[in-house]
Specification:
455 residues, alpha/beta, FAD/NAD(P)-binding domain, Enolase-like, domain 1, 7-stranded mixed sheet, 6-stranded antiparallel sheet, 27% strand, binds nicotinamide-adenine-dinucleotide
Length: 455
């Protein structure tokens, strides 16, 4: 039996950086993935394909708004197959890069579903000989949750997997769940002409976002063509003559397709038929500060364990675990994991929300700035949006929320300020180039008022 220092199950943004890091340190590393091309959900079924579609929808939106820039563009249109082709080309290029990087680092790649057995033995579908690791890391990620109450016919009742690969744009689309997936993909299909209806059972869309911002964004998203219902339930979903019949809050409506976007669950396919029992807690693999599961020598990172199900959190786990294995005394801290929604406008937040601060009775002051007063935003035709900073009594940043142009990039200023404990006076002296969108963040740190003081 071939043996390795480390076998990683899953080649996504948790698994592949860990593999490369440890291989470069001289470990004999194998990585196993059943998606024959590696890259995980992020690259094949999530972040990257969604962002490619959002970029096409944004470009179409800009063409439709040509007159706002003094330009003319008659009848802007699109060819969906070419939109998909562009997306597929981008993901293929990135996958190739990951595979080359792993091979160059000396990692052995196995393609096929890996299953874990006792004594850290892994059997891989399509491979006769099993392999054994001194250590195993489960970087198995997550799959869309599709509760059994929803019909299973995936040609009508999509998860994000089917939505990202659909050969045509449906005329009407019901989105169940107003989380990140529902809002991002809802906006893509709305821009390409679908009549989109998002039904969210909670009182606000985008769980985790502060309530005031979520409320403020409702009309913005409605303007972009989505009907959004909050605090409403889809009572039933059935198939009728190749279409979907939904009862929403007592009212019957028909749709061409339904996107079920009600969260994700751990991908447990590595455990099928296994003789190993790994302890779980609320559906996640239970791990200690050392990322070890209940099975000695078996570790887990990313979506499969506690913390937000985000690609950058999985990569962070990989970095911390690698540091621990190299003898550093570090533990994961998820208090500053930025959240980003890549819609138009983008939304990003980090640290504590205003709602959480109020609930905990923590004193804070708010700082604000509007993109309508930012030169770079206005010249780009992106004057909608604002930044809110939450500053503690010691001047340190407790949290920030941004909606508007490049929010996902500007949020890094907030993360840095909080992570390195820079107070608002010191931060205000950092020179920001003019004109830039990042100046708006500096202003939101400078413009701290008594407003919002709470204690
Ligand atoms: P989510 O947890 O973000 O949102 C699911 C939403 O569905 C929640 O608001 C929930 O209240 C609602 N819901 C649940 N059951 C419902 C029902 N029966 N009827 C109506 N509403 C219902 O989950 P998601 O959007 O599926 O995303 C899954 C994961 O993927 C999340 O962890 C997310 O952070 C991650 N993700 C991140 C990005 C990004 O970073 N931009 C993009 C996509 C996905």
């Amino acid at each position: 039996m071939q043996t390795f220092d480390l076998i990683i199950l899953g080649g996504g943004p948790g698994g592949y950086p860990l593999a490369a890091r440890m291989a470069r340190k001289g470990w004999k590393v194998a990585i196993v993935d059943n998606d024959s091309e590696f890259g995980g959900t992020c690259l094949n079924w999530g972040c990257i394909p969604t962002k490619a579609l959002l970029a096409s929808s944004r470009a179409l939106h800009l063409l439709k708004s040509a007159a706002d820039f003094g330009l003319s563009c008659e009848n802007p249109g699109f060819d969906w197959s070419k939109v998909l082709e562009r997306k597929n080309k981008i993901t293929a290029q990135l996958r190739q890069g990951i595979i080359k990087m792993l091979e160059k680092s000396g990692v052995t790649l196995f393609r096929g579903l890996g299953k874990l057995y006792k004594n850290r033995v892994v059997k891989i579908a399509g491979h006769e000989e099993a392999i054994q690791g001194n250590k195993i890391c489960l970087a198995v990620g997550s799959v869309p949750a599709a509760p059994a109450v929803f019909p299973a016919n995936r040609s009508i009742f999509w998860t994000s997997n089917e939505a990202l690969h659909t050969a045509e744009v449906p005329q009407s689309l019901l989105v169940v769940g107003g989380g990140v997936i529902g809002i991002e993909l809802g906006q893509v299909f709305a821009e390409f002409g679908s009549k989109v209806c998002v039904v969210e059972m909670m009182p606000q869309i985008l769980p985790g976002l502060d309530n005031a911002t979520a409320k403020r964004l409702l009309p913005v998203f409605k303007k972009s063509g989505m009907e959004i219902m909050t605090g409403k339930k889809v009572d039933s979903l059935t198939e009728k003559n190749g279409r979907a019949l939904a009862v929403i809050d007592g009212t019957e409506r028909e749709f061409d397709k339904v996107l079920i976007a009600v969260g994700r669950r751990v991908n447990m396919s590595f455990m099928h038929e296994t003789d190993v029992q790994i302890e779980t807690e609320r559906g996640l693999l239970k791990t200690g500060d050392d990322y070890q599961t209940s099975e000695p020598g078996v570790f887990a990172i990313g979506d499969a364990i506690k913390g937000p199900m985000l690609a950058h959190k999985a990569s962070y786990d990989a970095m911390i675990l690698a540091a621990q294995w190299q003898g550093e005394k570090v533990a994961a801290d998820y208090s500053l994991v930025p959240s980003c929604v890549y819609t138009h406008p983008e939304i990003a937040w980090v640290g504590q929300s205003e709602d959480a601060l109020k609930e905990k009775g923590i004193e804070y002051k708010t700082g604000r700035s509007l993109f309508s007063a930012n030169g770079k935003a206005l010249t780009a035709g992106e004057g909608d949006g604002q930044i809110k900073t939450l500053i503690g009594n010691d001047g340190k940043l407790l949290g920030a929320v941004i909606w508007g142009p490049e929010a996902s990039n500007i949020i890094n200023e907030a993360t840095m300020m909080a992570q390195f404990g820079i107070d608002n006076h010191a931060f205000s002296r950092m020179i920001h180039p003019h004109p830039t969108l990042s100046e708006a963040f500096m202003e939101a740190v400078e413009n701290v008022s008594g407003e919002g003081v709470h204690g």
